[in-house]
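Protocol step 4 of 6: structure prediction from sequence.
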Amino acid sequence: MSPMTAARISSPADRPRLGLRERKKIKTREAIRTATYALVREQGYDATTIDQIAQRAEVSPSTVFRYFPTKEDIVLTDEYDPVLLEELRGRPEDEPWPQAIRQVMLAAARTGVEDDIEVARLRTRLLVQVPAVRARMMESMSVTSRMLCVAIAERTGRDPDGLEVRVHAMSLIGGLMETSMYWAENGHQGDFPALLDRALDVLEHGLEHGRKDGPEPGGQHGPKPGGEQGPGSGNP
């Protein structure tokens, strides 16, 4: 959905209904991602090649391309969009749609930063600093939007191809993307789920209900004042 939705609300690899072949595919994709993140931290995004990623992940370059058509897709894609759809379907039937989508998105955000905050910071930083990653993200938003339209239609009884549904779905995805970028642009200060909650308030109630000040100082997941340091922080 975005660099912040690699959240393990319930990991697809852990679900018993998946066969051995599918679990192996998921593990291969995760190995490629892990190799990519490590290389980017060591030498930067532009200097990292598919051949290097394949060598680090112990797969062939053709395997990398089979799972990820572009290097940008390694950063952006994850296994969890279908999981988010299932989580939405599992919410109480009488729960209002705004509350259902808020609960699922916030749960994903919390799990994402708690599961591996360094990966979350890296992915969002690349989204801000690397034009190719940002451009690919814009392309992928339409795919995620169509999936979300289905979920909205199931919950509300509306036509998934209706204008209102499509606009609402894209506004949610755009809000998540902008919150991710805002968090990175401000040195990952503050609590990401709290920022996302603010964004959802704006989408649900309008701009007049939003805060007018800047990022929240500190936060349980944010770095100390002065920004983050470490390999790759200045050069993605």
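Step 5 (inspection) to follow. The radius of gyration is 18 Å.
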